[in-house]
Amino acid sequence: MIESLDIAPNAGIIRDVTVQEDSMPVRNIPQRESEIMDSLVKSGRYKCSEDVIAAAFDLLIDFESEYGFKLQAMRAAVQEGIDAIDRGEYREFESVDELNAYLSKIADEVIEEIEAR
Question: Taking the model in full, what pTM does it have?
Answer without folding.
Answer: 0.47
